[in-house]
Specification:
The structure holds two protein chains of two kinds.
Chain A lengths: L2 H29 L3 H5 L5 H8 L6 H7 L7 H6 L6 H18 L16 H8 L3 H4 L2 H11 L5 H4 L9
Chain B lengths: L2 H22 L3 H32 L4
Helix pairs in contact in B: 1-2
The chains are: A mainly alpha, B mainly alpha.
């Protein structure tokens, strides 16, 4: 085998797959944050229908309809904003696909979160907002809310009203 | 061309082909195929290639 052939093989089997995989990796991670990505699983249809329902009273729908969250609405609320949060969100998503098709670890009954919804996800946007900080109701429980001892969702309901 | 290189090319080609759906349209399924099938195939292709290189170097008594 000539040197040129060896170099070509190194390119085809080493460099090209690495660059291609990196590109697909970055692109898919970015696309996986979109609403359309979450909506592409039919198990999410009731939640997405609620999101887009103009008459829904759910928090998720209000955030979507009023464009309080402009893009990537599912991801913005559901990703944990810790260091590994975005990675864990994607791993959980892939775990759901495997669970759905294999039946392994498939939760019976209603879809539910793995852990209580962290206040940090709400406070990421609302935490510095004037109307949040100056509200007397919030002021009374501010410490507990910021310490994640009292969930935002205790008072702010309903979060989702899945339809269909 | 050695058998190892041929298998490496097969693995990499399959890796490329299975990654294309994820590149065109990222859905949970295409993403899963990319991460669980394509990436390992690329890895296998690279390992087979490296094994062929090592074998070649040993044949020429470089290693």
């Amino acid at each position: 085998m000539s040197t040129a052939e060896k170099l070509l093989l190194a390119l085809v089997l080493g460099l090209a797959p690495a660059l291609f995989a990196l590109a697909v990796f970055a692109l898919s991670f970015s696309r996986a944050e979109r609403l359309s990505f979450c909506a592409s699983c039919h198990t999410m249809t009731p939640w997405v229908s609620d999101l887009k329902n103009p008459n829904s009273s759910s928090l998720a729908s209000k955030h979507f309809r009023n464009r309080w969250i402009v893009t990537n609405q599912c991801y913005t609320c559901h990703v944990n904003y810790e260091f590994m949060g975005p990675i864990n969100a994607k791993l959980d998503g892939m775990r759901h696909v495997v669970a759905y098709y294999t039946g392994i670890e498939m939760a019976q009954g209603a879809i539910k979160l793995y852990e209580p919804f962290p206040n940090g996800n709400c406070l990421r946007c609302h935490g510095a907002a004037q109307n949040f900080n100056q509200s007397p109701t919030h002021a009374a429980v501010m410490q507990q809310v910021r310490a994640n001892q009292l969930s935002c969702t205790v008072c702010h309901q309903p979060i989702h009203t899945p339809q269909g | 061309m050695s058998k190892l290189i041929q298998w490496a090319l097969v693995a990499s080609t399959l890796g490329f082909l299975l990654a294309i759906p994820c590149l065109l349209e990222t859905t949970p399924i295409t993403m899963l195929v990319f991460f669980l099938v394509s990436l390992p195939l690329f890895g296998i292709g690279l390992l087979l290639y490296l094994a062929a290189v090592v074998r070649d170097l040993r044949t020429h008594k470089v290693l």
